[in-house]
Amino acid sequence: MWPRAVIYAIAPTRGIAGKFLHMAPQSSAGPRKWGALSMGPMLRAENLTKRFGSHAAVDNVSFAVRAGAITGFLGPAGAGKTTTLRLFLELVHPTSGSALIDGRPLHEWPVPARKVGAVLDGHCAHPGRRAVDSVRWAARLAGTRTDAEELLDRVGLAEAAGRRTGSFSLGMLRRLALAIALAGDPEVVVLDEPTSGLDPDSMTSVKDLLRHLRDEGRTVFVASRLLAALEDLVDDLVVIARGRVVGSGSAGAFIDRFQPQAVSVLSDQPYALGAAVSRAGGQVLDTNGQRVLIGGLSPAQLGEIARAAGIALFGLTEQAPPHPPAGPSAGPLAGPPVADAAGLRGEIC
Ligand SMILES: Nc1ncnc2c1ncn2[C@@H]1O[C@H](COP(=O)(O)OP(=O)(O)OP(=O)(O)O)[C@@H](O)[C@H]1O
């Protein structure tokens, strides 16, 4: 069942490739699947539980992540995303159940760094060491011949390759962490909030890199609280709340299913915005001073259109559909759908 408290917002980003995810059902009345079965899984959680004392951070979770796709792991703060990633990486041990990578626990792979590269936070290099040396070191540990300079170039750190990382910004450290994770030429890349704290250009380049990794045939599993951070990136989604998977499947189908019918925005150029919207095939449903109600476009599309036209948007709000989607598990969306003033962030909670 989708919980009533699914609140969401979508950033002004491009559309999503509609692909499918294979997921092991948790029970007959278990989490919602909105895609069809497809390729075999690369990551699989089976009845996975992790308790900290009496608290189940991850509660009997089962899901699978398709090989060769980018899968988003979406959930609010405290949902159990990081704990699940840590379970796959064997940084914590499950209370029960299993977290398998390509059918085995990570430690059973001869060189784990060649199977999985992971970034859970941006702090992974000695501050006194040069970036290029940290990447070389990681490559040496994994036994690969990775060209550290080329890899740093791929993550946008070519200029900083020779610098000691103690002076790096958060965004640079995140890129460096990604380069270190990729030094083992891994089949699977696991990332926790990889675009958090990055400026828009850095976000775009990190997302482009992740798409390249997918296009190279790697499996990318990326956790985020924000659908906006994933929407234009992921093929599939697994959604977790309060330690339980509440749904999984095609990201496009997820968005379509919960797409509101109208988007309300504030703009100091309402007429120019209306014209741009009409040119793009959307409809201006209503105007009231600076507030414009737009139909037929997602917030993501609207953001793109406004950005392309050089029009600033403020107070973007999604309007819940007047009739909730049909189906036994598609409860009405509760709470105010939110997107912040710039329309750059959204949250599922
Ligand atoms: N080492 C720990 N000891 C006790 N409780 C923990 C520990 N690690 C996580 N938790 C708890 O488990 C729950 C899930 O935490 P987790 O960090 O996995 O969530 P999350 O979805 O990654 O959240 P966020 O998006 O804020 O990082 C939270 O209630 C958290 O407080």
UniProtKB/TrEMBL annotation:
Highest taxon above the source species: Bacteria
Membrane-spanning intervals of the chain: none
Endpoints of the signal sequence: none
InterPro entries (UniProt xref): AAA+_ATPase, ABC_transporter-like_ATP-bd, ABC_transporter-like_CS, P-loop_NTPase
GO MF annotation terms: ATP binding; ATP hydrolysis activity
Keyword entries, A-Z: ATP-binding, Nucleotide-binding, Transport
Protein family (similarity comment): Belongs to the ABC transporter superfamily.
PANTHER family cross-referenced by the UniProt entry: ABC TRANSPORTER, ATP-BINDING PROTEIN (PTHR43335)
Name the UniProt record assigns to this protein: ATP-binding cassette domain-containing protein
Organism: Nonomuraea phyllanthi
